[in-house]
Amino acid sequence: MTSARRIAFLTCTGLTTATLWITACGTTPAAPASSTAAPTSAGTPPSTPSGPNPTATQTLRISYTDGTVTGDTGRVHVALGSTVALVVTSSVADEVHLHGYDKKVDVPAHGTATLTFTATIPGVFEVELEKLSKTLVMLEVS
């Protein structure tokens, strides 16, 4: 059985993406698919390519009310090199903090704040309401 994994890395000249084929003993690797999309947990590529689109912004909408986080929560995939807008609405005043990138924005009580950044660092990063230590979303950049 063959599965593909996208491995992204930065070089001094820019972003390079490679595909690594992992093959079980005694099998022949299949030809690469025309899509460069990352495989899903089942090992099949998603229906849309995951490569960054420099003109598109991925918008994530998150709300915090009475201790409950709703909207784009859990672990959310973000394409490396893409622009991301985190739109956070909160019932309490706090600081929205994107760890790893060290980006911050204040959100007023019963208000909305937007934190926009370019996903240039691969990895998994927590976005939280800093004073409450409340996780809003985990961003998986790859």
Question: Could you walk me through the main structural features you see in this protein, from its secondary elements to its overall organization?
Answer:
This protein has 142 residues and is an all-beta fold. It has 2 domains: 1-47, no CATH class; 57-141, Cupredoxins -  blue copper proteins (Immunoglobulin-like). The chain contains no helices and 11 strands. The chain has a 5-stranded mixed β-sheet, with no helix packed on it. The chain has a 4-stranded mixed β-sheet with strand order 4-3-6-9, with no helix packed on it. The chain is globular, with a radius of gyration of 18 Å. It starts with a strand and ends with a strand.
Quick overview:
With 142 residues, the protein is an all-beta fold. The protein has strands at 2-11, 14-23, 57-65, 68-71, 75-78, 83-90, 94-98, 103-107, 111-118, 123-129, 134-141.
Throw out a few tags for this protein.
Immunoglobulin-like
| Terminal residue distance | 24 Å
- Estimated helix fraction: under 10%
Low-confidence stretches: 1-50
In the CATH scheme, the class of the largest domain would be Mainly Beta
Order of helices and strands: EEEEEEEEEEE
Tell me the count of domains. Answer: 2
Query: Shape from CA axes?
Result: globular
The radius of gyration computed from the alpha-carbon positions, rounded to a whole number of angstroms, is 18 Å
| CATH fold name of the largest domain | Immunoglobulin-like
CATH architectural arrangement of the largest domain: Sandwich
- CATH level-4 homologous superfamily of the largest domain: Cupredoxins -  blue copper proteins
Tally of helical runs: 0
Strand order of the largest sheet: 5-11-10-7-8
Computed structural class: mainly beta
